[in-house]
Amino acid sequence: xxxxxxxxxxxRLAWNLRVLWIFGFLLALTSSGGIWxxxxxxxxxxxxxxxxxxxxxxxxxxxxxxxxxxxxxTTPGQPKFLIQQGFGWVELQEITWPEWDLGxxxxxxxxxxxxxxxxxxxxxxxxxxxxxxxxVIRSVNLHAATGEKPSFAYSLRQGWSRTAWRLFVIxxxxxxxxxxxxxxxxLVAASPLxxxxxxxxxxxxxxTILSAVLFFPWILLFFLVVPATSLLREVFWRxxxxxxxxxxxxxxxxxxxxxxxxxxxxxxWLIWVGIDLVWxxxxxxxxxxxxxxxxxxxxxxxxxxxxxxxxxxxxxSLFFSGxxxxxxxxxxxxxxxxxxxxxPITFLAGFVRLFRSNLWTLTYRELxxxxxxxxxxxxxxxxxxxxxxxx
Length: 391
Prior knowledge:
two-stranded antiparallel ribbon, three-stranded antiparallel β-sheet, 6% strand, 5 strands, globular, mainly alpha
């Protein structure tokens, strides 16, 4: 198998099958392929626009730097706002602080609403994730087998199918098995701590030391299992989507494929990890280069989120008074706003996701152990599976 040929073909398909870009975007949005930037603020330092301001421990002020504006934090009480007038500075007396009566917030209703929204977002994420995975894998498989470019309608049908459900089941089985096994091993490692129940201090100390010694191999095992599960998942998914079999059969076939093509699978996985590392290094400069587009994203996000936010706030105001209804509207608006802001970098992450998915799909088709089924499949598709068509 020519890895360089598969690599180049994977890139060409990611670029030429533009109908799949939307599915790549959804994959990046609903999985770890996307990048989310979160700012933090500690209890006595605020940083904004390159300025560091040291604040009293009992107060934290977060402000944006502005030309012709000073904020004096040394005065007792609330800070002074000074505006430039000529060569001097004049205190701006008109500024007042908004007063929020937090006592009006129905915290229980807000938490229930947040839990419901989190559940809806989780279900939507699962639906979009596995629908997109199925659409990408099966569409690329069609093109590699026949040379036919899939339409958006075809890709959507392949995504909205039993295959998507089977991919989810495979993922769920892997998660449950790994979680149960790792928890069982962790319990074994922690079992010497039960010696404290004997009432013997020396035995308790020995048990603590023994548990600590056993805990480090568990950590090492954890960091080995995580990448191993990613390898298994990719092979199992292709066995399911390309072979059109159910989840149990796909898992069995996937193990067989790995056993008979261990070297090829490991090399592909290393290339896959290398792509991830390159993307990780390139993401930061790309984020800076695309920063002007984030301004556009802010404006688009403001337009997109304001309508659903106001609708939810309006409906909520029929049942809740005060700021509670507005907070519910904000909880709906904020996710939409964030998606719009980070859409440029998420789009690039989606392209990388497409490239990586294509790499696994084409590699799976080229594995030596699958060559024996090529004549039968070729008779059905009219094209050999081992030679993906060049777009």
